[in-house]
Amino acid sequence: MPTTAKIISVGNSAGIILPKETLARLNVQKGDILYITESAQGIRLMPYDQEFAAQMEAAREVMRENRDVLQRLAE
Question: What is the chain written as a DSSP string?
């Protein structure tokens, strides 16, 4: 079910107010870290996971090291 969120000013940045129901579904609370990922379907919020963070860093390193190869494969 779609839920709305309001974008507010936080100093020189912006923040999003998430409803308490959304926080409960994500199993997060104020001060927790969220991952924001983009896909063809839109933006996805996920709770921080140390194992996922390590996997993402490994993927970024592989992409950096093999940028030319990956670019040619994409053509």
Answer: -----EEEEETTEEEEE--HHHHHHHT--TT--EEEEEETTEEEEEE--HHHHHHHHHHHHHHHHTHHHHHHHH-
pTM score, two decimals? 0.56
Convert the pLDDT of each residue in 58-73 to its tens digit.
988 988 888 888 888 8
Question: What distance in Å separates the CA atoms of residue 17 and residue 40, rounded to the nearest whole number?
Answer: 24
Packing angle, helices 50-65 and 67-74, rounded to 10: 80
Kindly state the tokens that stand for 49: 């996971």
Domains of the chain: 6-74 (2.10.260)
